[in-house]
Structures are given as C-alpha cells and as structure tokens.
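Cross-posted from the bioinformatics board.
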Amino acid sequence: MKIAVIGGGAAGFFAALSAKEKHPQAHLTLFEKSQKLLAKVKVSGGGRCNVTNACSDIAELSRAYPRGGKKLKKAFHEFNTPDTIQWFESRGVPLLVQEDQCIFPQAQDSQVVIDCLMSEARRLGVHIEVGRGIASIEPKGAQWELRFLKAENLPLSFDKVIVATGGSPKRSGLEWLEALGHKIEDPVPSLFTFNMPKEPIKKLMGVVVENAVTSIQGTKLKGDGPLLITHWGMSGPAILKLSAFGARILSEMNYEFKVQVNWVNEQNHDVVLAGLSKIAAENAQKQLANFRPYLLPKRLWHYLLEKGGFGENRRWNELGKKGLNKIQMLLTNDTYAVQGKTTFKEEFVTCGGVSLDSINFKTMESRVCPGLYFAGEVMDIDGITGGYNFQSAWTTGWIAGKLG
Ligand SMILES: Cc1cc2nc3c(=O)[nH]c(=O)nc-3n(C[C@H](O)[C@H](O)[C@H](O)COP(=O)(O)OP(=O)(O)OC[C@H]3O[C@@H](n4cnc5c(N)ncnc54)[C@H](O)[C@@H]3O)c2cc1C
C-alpha cells in the first residue's frame, strides 16, 4: 500500500506515525511544502510548546473547542489528553503540568517535541520530502494522483492520502479541496486580542484582573478568567475566549463592537450592591480611593472612580444610594468600545476550513472521496489557548493514521 501525508506539521507527523505503526509494510511519504518541518511546533507556546492540557474529562475538554467540540467528543474516546501524555513520556519527553493546567515539556523547549517526532519518524521508516507542495489531488482509478506546485515534480499516485495542511487564512487556499467536492466553511481568524483606540483604560497597561467575566453587547457571547490590560486594549483568557467563540460573529461585525466587563466576577448585582453598602457602613469615614472593594488592583479602582466622576476626596458615607448604584454598575457592567484586533503573541488559529459534514469522524475519512483522510487544523476545528489545538491535531492525526 502506498500512503501520502500532505503537510509536515503536528497533525501530519502524528498521522504518519500512527499510519506506519498500524501499517508497517506500507510505503509512506510525507510531503511538506516549505523547507521546514514542524515549524509551528517550534514557535508554539513561546518556544516551549504547550503540548496538551491536563483536562481529561471528555465533556469538559470538548467545550474548549468553539468549532468541532461535538465531533471531537467521540474522537477523544480513542485518543485523549492522557494518551498524549503517555505517548510523549514513554518516548523520552517528560511533561510538566502548570498551575493553569497547561502541559509543557519539562525541558521547557519545543525542540524536544520536534526531536521526538523526528526520531519516531526515522524509527518507523517515514519517508519525508520537503519543498514539495501539493497543488491538487485527482482520482486515478482506485488511487489518488498528487500533482505538485512545482511543474518539474511529476505527479505521483497513492492508495491512501491524508491531508494535514493546517489552517488557511484565505478560502482560495482550500479551493483544491473544494474542487474534490468537500464543503468549505469560510476561514476567519480566531484567538485575538481587542484594540480599543479610543479608550483611556490603555494607560493601565500591565494591570491584570484575576477573574473577570466578559460579554459582547448584543450577543450571547461570554468569557471568563484573567483579563490583562494592554498597550492596545485588552487581552488574557477572558478576552481570547470571546475572540474564539465569537470568531465568526465578530468578523461579521468588522471587529467593531462593545465589550462589557464584570471586574468582580459576581453576576448577581444585588449581592454586589449589598457588599458595597456594607463597605460604606463599615468604612464610612474612609475616602473611596483608600478602600478597594474585591481587592481590585489599585490602578484599576482609581481609574473606575475617575471614570464614574467620583472626586478624589469623596468618602464612602457620602455616596448615597445613587452613588453606590453607580459603583456597582462600574464593577459589574463596565463597557468599552472595541475597534480592531491584534494577534495574540503571534499565536492564532483559523476558524473554518473543510466542513466536518464532509468527514466521517470515526475514521477521519472524507465522505466524498474514499481513501482520502483529514487531520488537524485544515478542518473546521479550533480550540481556545491551553494546548487544545495540538491535542486536536494529535487526536485526529492518530485516528486518520488508522486508515480505517
Ligand atoms: C505562534 C503560534 C503558537 C502556537 N502555540 C500553540 C500551543 O502552544 N499549543 C497549542 O495547542 N496550539 C498552539 N498553536 C496552534 C497550533 O500550532 C496549530 O493548531 C497546529 O500547529 C495545527 O497543526 P496542523 O498540523 O494541523 O497544521 P500546521 O502546523 O499549520 O502544519 C501544516 C503544514 O502543512 C504544510 N502545507 C500547507 N499546504 C501544503 C501543501 N499544499 N502541500 C504540502 N504541505 C503543505 C505547511 O507548510 C505546514 O508545515 C500555536 C499557533 C501559532 C501560530
């Protein structure tokens, strides 16, 4: 049997290794368009590679994927986060779980992941060709003929083909797969931070609120977790989650919308109001600036007071019901205008790609082209940050490699 894997990223490598383990007699070639293999693994996680996440509860894990979660749920029963951990650790890559549940190599260096995948590929006899981009796939009897971007590379035929070409920022990059009859979901960026050119809160850059709740006005989108104020606007998990779950809606809004921030992570506004009344009663003579509710960062508290028009010397007992209500609103429903986005630490994923309707998730085989399989981000699957995107590449690559 002749197998081709297209794409030398995380998904392509894992699919190739899985295929050679299950079909050792097969002749397998991995084609990579660029000169570099595993380029994203190298730069991932700030050069440390967030390989996976410690979450092993499949229902919870699948909720980390704005697109593809439902389908991945079944796939995780075959290859889940503990399988990833076991796979790497049993091959000489000890891993470390961070407090935030993200898992990195103990060596804190993505190169150890690359070395492991490369040495496994050598051991199993994966033939690798770099600088060999595929332009199109065409049926040739019971086989598939690959045509290369470079005319001097003659077409080659294979019995099975695994497509693992990663996310494409433009629909045109997926036309060769559309031509085969696959449905394509328009690609748009996911995982970005919010620009707030007109909001003075940017002057607080560097301030972190440990557990904020965010939402987008006029939508049902909600995020939570740490929120970081940046030079451009806002970032951190509470924002990145909104960008991931809202990737398509926010693109349609042309990245102009209002974000509402609940700085204190308390949804019940009456509870916040009662808390503020208690503070006012117990700290009657104190100036507002000198007593921070919910231990908010000092700079943020002072900013909110200024935003609400509370004078520097105002005391807690001078607020009255109106004043307390106003503070409660500032703490729980603080609104900012977003205009534009910025890539988060150069880390981004693509929402969209080959529609999951075109793929049988039991095998990752195309529903329209028998013998053609998919793995990784080329599909309409993406996760939030935290090692989830690689996990989906490992899982789908593993299943695709079975060629079932
Ligand atoms: C800077 C950055 C940091 C990241 N950090 C993390 C992290 O720490 N943890 C995490 O889980 N996720 C992270 N991600 C996301 C993660 O890297 C991707 O989701 C993952 O790499 C997808 O794997 P893939 O194999 O599907 O695609 P890719 O890694 O994109 O690989 C696809 C490969 O196919 C090749 N290719 C494309 N077209 C063709 C063609 N026509 N013919 C031949 N070859 C082709 C490409 O050159 C590429 O090498 C990060 C992303 C970025 C950009």
